[in-house]
Design goal:
Blueprint: H1 9-19, E1 22-28, E2 35-41, E3 43-44, E4 50-55, H2 59-66, E5 69-75, E6 87-96, H3 100-112, E7 125-138, E8 144-147, H4 149-152, H5 160-176, H6 178-188, E9 197-202, E10 205-210, E11 213-218, H7 226-242
Antiparallel strand pairs: 1-2, 1-5, 3-4, 4-7, 5-6, 6-7, 7-8, 9-10, 10-11
Helix pairs in contact: 5-6, 5-7, 6-7
Length: about 240
């Protein structure tokens, strides 16, 4: 089925990847090859690919270590009939993190799931990133499409300065600019007033969270440096205040 002309498939897929905090992970049983599905918490890498923190005691982790091929279903948890909401099935390989990569995945995961601090250092837990090979998006009649990774992942090759400064920016926004966070949420994204906090920044936008609610604030232009990020956030705060 071909999508309708007004359908921004890439934007919706990126938003679901950024906003989702839980998903259904499908792995393969090593002996039989049968599919096995389990519920997992997820976060997103700076490029948008999913991050998992899973225990080696879990069957899905044992499956992944034997065969890294996985699929992950994410949905927007729409009220009413869940089939009326958008969802994606992402296929790829789950890769266990090591070295410096572990620090990056740990930081971004804990920003999204601070309660994981209680067990993140247990010896049986490890971080995995799913390297996508493709994505199937379903968002209603006439809105079904397959996307290749370049259509939904965020380019970060030119954003080393931004990514180095990201955690400092996240902490600064959460400690000193909660008013601005609430303005972004309510004035720019139409959300209710809440204790919104920043969970991540990347060249394409900022991720926000209040309890179980999540938002994606897309930037009107790419930002690739700490200075460009600061200017963008000041600009968007001004636009939010101008809305009264």
């Amino acid at each position: 089925m071909q999508p309708t002309a007004d359908f921004e498939a890439s934007k919706l897929a990126r938003s679901l990847l950024r906003r989702s905090r839980q998903g259904a992970l499908a792995t393969l049983m090593p002996e039989s090859g049968d599919p096995y599905c389990s519920l997992v918490n997820v976060a997103s890498h700076a490029d948008g690919s999913p991050i998992l923190l899973i225990s080696r005691l879990a069957l899905h982790t044992k499956n992944v270590l034997a065969d890294g091929r996985v699929s992950l279903m994410l949905d927007e948890r729409a009220a009413g009939d869940p089939l009326e909401g958008a969802r994606i099935m992402l296929a790829g390989r789950a890769e266990e993190a090591a070295g410096e990569t572990t620090k990056i995945l740990r930081r971004r995961y804990l920003n999204a799931h601070p309660s994981a601090e209680a067990f993140v250092d247990f010896k049986d837990f490890s971080f995995f990133r799913i390297a996508p090979s493709g994505l199937h998006l379903v968002a209603g009649f006439g809105r079904i499409i397959d996307l290749t990774p370049e259509k939904f992942l965020t380019e970060i090759g030119d954003a080393a300065d931004l990514l180095e400064a990201e955690q400092g920016a996240v902490e600064h926004m959460n400690e000193d600019h909660r008013e601005a966070m609430n303005l972004y949420a309510t004035k720019l994204l139409g959300a209710d007033t809440a204790d919104w906090r920043c969970t991540g920044c990347d060249p394409g936008g900022m991720d926000m969270q209040a309890g179980t609610a999540t938002l994606r604030l897309d930037f009107p232009e790419r930002v690739t440096s700490a200075m460009a990020l600061r200017k963008m956030l000041v600009r968007l705060a001004g636009e939010a205040r101008a809305k009264g």
